[in-house]
Amino acid sequence: MAAPQTGTSILDQFPPEIYDEIGSNLTGRELDGVTRSSKRLRALFLRSLFHTIRFDHLQPAVRDRLRRFINHQTPEKMTEIWTAVRRASFLFPFPHSISDFDLEEMLPLSQDALRFQVLQAVRLLSHVRHLTIDLERFGDRHIDTFRAAHPSAPRWEHLESLRLTGLGENRRFAAALIHNSSPNKLKAVDLSGIHSFLLSSKTVANRKVQEQSLEQMTEALRQMPCLVRFAFTLHINRFQPDTIRDRLGLDENGNEPLTDNEVWWWYTAQVQRIADAVPQFEEVCVFGNFGSSMGVDIAGIYRGTKIEDGKSMHVLVDAVQPGVECLTFPWGLDNDIYP
User: Fold this and answer.
1) Among residues 19, 27, 225, which one has the least CA distance to residue 108?
2) Distance between CA 193 and CA 335 in Å, rounded?
3) How far apart, in whole angstroms, are the C-alpha atoms of residue 87 and residue 277?
4) How far apart are CA 218 and CA 220, in angstroms?
5) Which helix (H) or strand (E) holds 145?
6) Which domain of life is it from (predicted)?
7) Angle formed by the axes of helices 140-149 and 112-123, to 10°?
8) CA 297/CA 271 separation, integer angstroms
9) From CA 193, how far away is CA 214, in angstroms rounded?
10) What pLDDT, on the 0 to 100 scale, is given for residue 277?
11) Is the distance from CB of 189 to CB of 196 less than 8 angstroms?
12) Separation of alpha carbons 212 and 272, rounded Å
């Protein structure tokens, strides 16, 4: 390929729709050599990285700084870019069918440095308003390394909305930041300005552990006085029907399958429990099981909204058919506005 003209990024020669694929096609050896590579390869890789962590949301001034950095400047100039970011999503460019691939095979050990650098970048977004982090892309070992190198929790003084997905095996890191922390630990994390929050995690079937988890979660939520909308995952099918009926005070039907009404009563009770624990909540959503359509899972929630008495929650089922884009909370934040 011919060398690009002076001042022009090599990536400008490619159509934008392929940017997402470039980073995932680089080998570990190539990634290890990025900092020592030619200017052309550095430009190719860095632009791909920033696109896949969705810095396409950057305001024009920041995009200009990024372009200057890629083509002319040194890594020290990155600080100027990080502090100017208002919206950031850290999502690596993996195939949609991620379950068909082995994570470590796709991101081998030789790329540890890259993942660590991305985690460091999360800390440097001192003025970010909206932040999305897909923790599944990092893995416990990398999270532990990150925590060891940065024992103090990040402080995002201007953060308005935070979305953590893919907690899975990264529960310890998530706990340190959000829902499993004791109040004195949580004070090290400034989440007081958050208005909307989505927590996605695996629900354990043990009733005692689940009760403890909910208590810890609500205790953490109380430390966020500006939080008015909250969504979390709690699958009823992880519990036996007789356990559910016992919680609802129902004696009949034993361990027979739950009726639709019983399922709704149980989810309503969970919504109300959270709302009672955190009185300022105006909306509480719980992700449930809604089956599938044409082999694709239906996205659905039990949405609770506060009624006029200021205490009770009115709970309705809200399902989204596959292929339908939904921009309302918790699938999207439909009122996100940033400078």
Assistant:
1) 27
2) 16
3) 30
4) 5
5) helix 140-149
6) Eukaryota
7) 50
8) 23
9) 22
10) 92
11) no
12) 17
* Report field, pTM of the whole predicted structure over 0.70: no
Residues 281 and 227: beta-carbon distance below 8 Å: yes
Dihedral angle, C-alpha 288, 292, 293, 296, nearest 10 °? 100
Distances (CA, A) of 298 to 201, 285, 287, 301, 322: 18, 16, 11, 10, 6
Tokens 């680089």 belong to 26
Look up residue 5 and give its DSSP letter: P
Q: Given this model, what pLDDT does residue 54 score? A: 67
Q: Is 290 helix (H, G, I), strand (E, B) or coil?
A: coil
Among 79, 4, 108, 89, residue whose Cα is nearest residue 49: 89
Q: Where are the beta strands (DSSP E) in the chain?
A: 87-90, 130-134, 161-165, 196-199, 229-233, 283-287, 292-293, 296-297, 299-306, 313-320
Q: Would you state the pLDDT for residue 74?
A: 64
Structure tokens at 13: 């020669």
Q: What are the 10-residue block averages of pLDDT along the chain, 339 residues in total?
A: 43 54 50 54 63 64 74 68 80 43 41 62 77 67 60 65 61 47 33 59 61 76 80 77 82 78 90 92 83 61 90 88 70 45
